[in-house]
Amino acid sequence: MNICFAIAHYKFFHSHRLDLTKELAKTHAVSIVTDCSKAIPQEIKYLKSLGIEVINLPGRSKKNGYISYALSLRRVIQNINPEIVFYVTLEMSVFGAMIHHLLKIKKSFFLITGLGTFFYSKKLKYLVLRSIQRLLFAFALMKQNCLFVFQNTDDLEVFIDLKIANQSNVKMIRGNGVNASDFICQDRKYENKVIFLYASRLSLSKGILEFINASRLLKGEYPDAEFHIAGGYDAEDPDSISFEAFNALVTDNDILYLGELPHSEMKDCFHQASVFVMPSYREGLPKVALEAAASGLPLVMTNATGCKDCVEHAVNGFLVETRSSEALYDGMELCIKNLKSMKEYGQKSAEMVEKKYSLEIITQEYLKLIKL
Q: Taking the model in full, what pTM does it have?
């Protein structure tokens, strides 16, 4: 069967769906439509050696607006002529709804990996886009050969409550699967020094400021504790911290900024850490948190959509209030005060991933989905 994944950016594909795509390519013809402008040539060559076709489609920009991008995506998919298309992310799914209505595609799957600015912003631009989105989804669903795929129940229920979807056209698949051979549970010794790791973009909605504030407060109380940040900074992203805040972070003596690390280096980063922290406001299902868990790290995360699916409170970590530096401080301090329990918490994290989120389990879910 000829399967196509439409994903806006190659980096997102490589970090989140590479392993799943490789598994599907063992039994199906797979092509990827994505912006390859920042891809490493050797990686593209490697994918082609596995029989995975990679088609470059320049990303949406000010010069390449919504309509222009949608038409380009339609032409590329029409040339590929796949039987099944997976449109990854909410925005890409909106384009997919239009394309599905215009082309004779056997099945289209709209992979909703989270509901962010596009869905919740009150700006006029996004209000208009959401109205168009609902109309396009309604047209696409009239054909009855497309399906929404969600990563958490909260997002699924939002779509049903808003009557964008119903129980007959939704499916739950929790994430993209974690490759256990890449992220191995480490036998850590929790004695004196604790290293807290934040690994995500330096975005306000990821809770980066809450982590910075909580870390500075904890450093004053627990000078032996360390606080590491691994994540990219995009000055043009309105959700990023200010340039002044970024400069202050880079020169901060209490926090070690590691920069944006390649996905291949993250396992070493996890192995050096003691506790993984993610104070995000909302997620689909954060793969980086699951990879940290598979590596045997206890988790401190917000009790927010997507995040709460990774943590069983006081079993493999702690859930804290969203948008609160004080609550995050308390959750991180609990790890320091309960060092003897952290090894067991980390083992529980790894067990959770193995039982619910492993690559083998998720691959089987996708193979079943393709056969529907």
A: 0.93
